[in-house]
Design goal:
homodimer; about 375 residues; alpha+beta; Creatine Amidinohydrolase, Chain A, domain 1; Creatine Amidinohydrolase; 2 domains; four-stranded mixed beta sheet; 10 helices; 19 strands; about 35% helix
Chain lengths: ~375, ~375
């Protein structure tokens, strides 16, 4: 029997077992051919203090604890690697003769098991499964997306009022406001980007200092109830604070690229086709892209899946992933130049039979 | 030259590089003898879009990006494992002839490198370094500890008022209140335990439903500014809601165990001595412990280090770690029985030359 082992502390484990615990392992059987989950084995190993909770909450058929596996006795006997030996003896007892582990499986345990049993690194079967969302999952992601849009509109009103009253605001203030707003509504947003000024040429700069002529607001809250993310970005132009014509041109190009890419989304096309569309549009306006070895311009991927992680499958880049109905991902063209700063627009969408349904409904070009 | 490689997305990487990025690698040279960091090599590899941020913020001497390593060309040539090959060629170019990786290093990359270069799994040199805190770090942890205590007192006053007004409260309400309070003060608390009733016999049950005769409040906020945690637990006895004599006896035993253990803390003693003291006290009152193969009673470790992670080194259990001046850890005896529920008391402390300094000052026995 081939057993796949995954470790806790990541979204695949949570998705597969319904458990959020530390130091736990999920062992399940897979078919010879690889990625398909088989029926024989589906168990979790958890620390003893999680026994009851795991029995109550987990989807696995069997819950074992470290002491069931003889971990503590091995520890007391000073055996060399109590965890590895305990898991190995469990596998042997269950009739496992081959093991597969995911790419991010801890190296120490992988190398130990490989020294005793044939072991392969395989793509986690749940990564791919997670890329296609159930209707229930789409609704959870929609909730987080709408919360992001609401928080964006909330901060827009705040900036507007501040402008009317002649009050200066900082990126830090805006970020605090958005994050507290979201938290009080049941969402956790961290590292929210509220970035203004020339330093926006760094795509992941979260933003500090005074609000200037344009603001990148990139908000990706996670529901504190169910754990699903939403992801949303708009660039706000603020003429009163001195926006530049260059920024407005870049923003218009990104909006066109986003909309053209979104319009072509449907089941069956390739991720790279979407990414190429974005690059084509941006290059048609003379901007640089990564595929032309640009060090500035469009220097990241077009998008990424959104779900229990804010970045998950599918990647929308130069890869050949086939887009499927039910996938949820972002489309987020951006342009970044040291001489004037950066802009980005981003939607999260779900792939329907006939095209994309946008989960982050909001106007593209926002001027205050 | 021996190079140690660590991956991003964990506290060691952040501690060593001062960077919070995804998909990044830190390569540094170590001495032949293992755990000591050497001078020759100290570089980070980051995605292209993080180049500027990494140059500005990182402690590494050299910042390289995926495209500097030829990653994108390899991807376009459909080479089998662009990341592995890119890192390997970097290592070869830098004159690295042996590699070490931490226990939790991703298996795929570890196995690939091991097929090309001698590779060993080693303890991350930064795990141990992080266990001993600088005075600056202690002050950051103290901040988070005091925030936890403040939030606890805040929720106590809320419960008191509710009792006076004859209003029933739920664990969920109390958790929301504590977490929102902390968030608005700059701290993130997740999975805060506000657990009441018989189900408190599960140590990590976060608590649902009506407040009953005793409440376990376990609060572990992280500063949203600097990322350091605090960790603090008290069990509140609420006679008006019908606490049981059994629970009060268990709580008194835990308080005695905690205080006796804290009193023996000083540089030079072993983690296991502290844990044994806790077990001795609890067993002297007839309670079960894990070391006596109890399935109930004291079924977890005595404590754990606190810092950039809420659980880090040193572990205070049956291990022989030597306690050093500057270590910060918890002491948290608990007792859990299906028939009546659980209790726990927990302080975070820093080891000073002459003994423990408690970072979570609060009375032990709390009755409402």
């Amino acid at each position: 029997m081939i057993a796949f082992i995954q470790h806790s502390g990541n979204a695949n484990f949570r998705y597969a077992t319904n458990l959020e615990v530390e130091h736990a392992y999920h062992v399940f059987s897979i078919h010879e051919t690889g990625l398909k989950v088989a029926e024989e084995l589906n168990l979790v190993v958890v620390p003893d203090l999680e026994r009851e909770r795991a029995k109550a909450e987990s989807r696995a058929e069997e819950v074992l604890t470290y002491s069931d596996l003889g971990y503590y006795e091995r520890m007391r006997r000073n055996s060399e690697y109590p965890l590895g030996e305990s898991l190995l003896s469990l596998l042997q007892q269950k009739g496992v003769d081959r093991v597969a582990v995911p790419e991010d499986f801890p190296a120490k345990l992988a190398l130990f098991l490989k020294s005793r049993l044939p072991l392969e690194v395989m793509k986690n079967p749940f990564s791919e499964r997670r890329a296609v969302k159930s209707e229930e999952e789409v609704e959870k992601i929609r909730e987080s997306c709408l919360a992001a849009v609401e928080a964006f509109k909330f901060v827009l009103r705040f900036i507007e009022k501040s402008l009317n009253r002649g009050r200066k605001r900082t990126c830090e203030e805006l970020r605090s406001l958005v994050e507290l707003r979201l938290f009080s509504r049941g969402f956790l947003a961290e590292n929210t980007i509220m970035a203004s000024g020339i330093k926006t040429h760094q795509p992941h700069w979260t933003g500090y200092g005074e609000l200037k002529g344009h603001l990148i607001a990139d908000i990706f809250p996670k529901s504190r109830e169910h754990g699903y993310f939403g992801d949303f970005t708009r660039t706000v132009v603020i003429p009163e604070l001195g926006e530049s014509g260059e920024i407005v041109d870049m923003l218009r190009a990104c909006i066109e690229a986003k909309n053209r890419a979104e319009q072509m989304v449907k089941p069956g096309i390739l991720a790279r086709d979407i990414h190429c569309e974005v690059c084509d549009v941006l290059e048609s306006y003379g901007y640089d892209t990564l595929r032309k070895n640009g060090k500035e311009g469009f220097i990241h991927a077009t998008g990424h899946g959104v779900g229990l992680e804010v970045h998950e499958e599918p990647k929308i880049f130069e890869n050949d992933d086939v887009i499927k109905e039910g996938m949820v991902f972002t489309v987020e063209p951006g342009l970044y130049y040291k001489k004037c700063g950066g802009v980005r627009v981003e939607d999260t969408l779900v792939v329907r039979r006939n095209g994309a349904e946008i989960l982050t409904p909001c106007e593209d070009f926002v001027v205050l």
